[in-house]
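Bug report

Summary: structure tokens for Ig-like domain-containing protein differ between web form and batch submission.
Environment: batch mode, default settings.
Steps: 1) Submit the sequence below via batch. 2) Compare with the web form result.

Sequence submitted:
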Amino acid sequence: MGELAVTQGRLRLALTGGAGAAAILAVGCATGCGVGGAGKLASGNSATTVTITPANGTAQVKPDGTIEVKASDGKLQNVTVQGAGATVTGAFGGGHKTWRSTRTLTPGTSYTVTAQSRDDGKTRTVTSSFTTLKPAETLSIADVTPNLTGEKVGVGMPIIVRFDRPVTDKAAVERTLRVTPDKPVEGAWRWVSADQVIYRTKTYWQPHQTVRFHASLAGVNAGGGVYGAKDAQATISIGAKQITTGDIDGHRMTVTRDGEKLRTVPFSAGNGQTREFTTTSGVHLLMEKGNPVTMTSPGRQPGDPGYYKQVVNYAVRFSNSGEYVHSAPWSVGAQGSANVSHGCLNVSPENAKWFYDIMQRGDVIKLTGSDREVEPLNGWSFWQMSFDTWREGSALR
């Protein structure tokens, strides 16, 4: 295998090895060597063998397999991997005698590996082309939140990743997820369901920076014969540090930006007659806004006691249990002095529009004064959970 000979004044190279074997290049002279008039090699007869695995022509290579290149003599100078999908990276080892890929391959893809070695000042090249397995089922990221073009988010913003199917091997998938902020801060992933994982930092993000998310998912064995279909990425812009603190008993909230007070806003909170009409205390995040928003009483039908249906303007949501900051011109007289709402923070039309206009998803709103604590998974109230408890939800703990 790899036999080199001179026959009737011609240079003959035998390259052998079938599917599943390695591609081997045996060279008995330097690139560009000639053949003398007497049929002798113009250079010496030392041999350098470069082996690439998978071998040329191999099919059905598992996406989580490894590409390996070895040089018997000399040193590897350069190895490139060309193919559609994710860029395949690798690292040299053994004094540049070996090279191994450092990430998985994209399923159902054709690859060509080109390796160059150098020995005694001469450069030699060998290639191998192969294809990866196309699995019956793949795993993709269906959504990353936040994901709105041009959006700036608050310093409490989580990164919420939702997959297009339940994940069997959560640890393998979580290892592919990387979060890189301009201003580093400790953080951790927590699985909240089989198809959703959330990243939260230990302390708030530093404001006015860029955070990059990347998932090297292509080719990862996600369990049950399912492989990652492709990589995914997102760029997140952290805006100003906007913190709202409110006292439910005191009927007022104060809004600050980057440590500077912007405004104190009188409000009327939940009347507390039932649990659902009690505004929750705790650390919330602003989730979304709408103008207008139609609000209805949960679990009640028209004619039932306590039923209501109300259209409100400049509504900013801060939980999944129907809590908003919104315009309530009908209760201006109670704002700042009494709690008469169904659980929302009712504010004047002027203050509602002002708050609505400056709001960023992920801004923090801390409320105190009620006997109902917001649950950590009610909306984006993840800061209700200690960081030590939060990271226990990681598959890599």
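Above is the batch result. After comparison, the two runs are identical; trailing whitespace caused the diff. Helices lie at 170-174, 349-358, 387-391. Confidence is low (pLDDT under 50) at residues 1-46.
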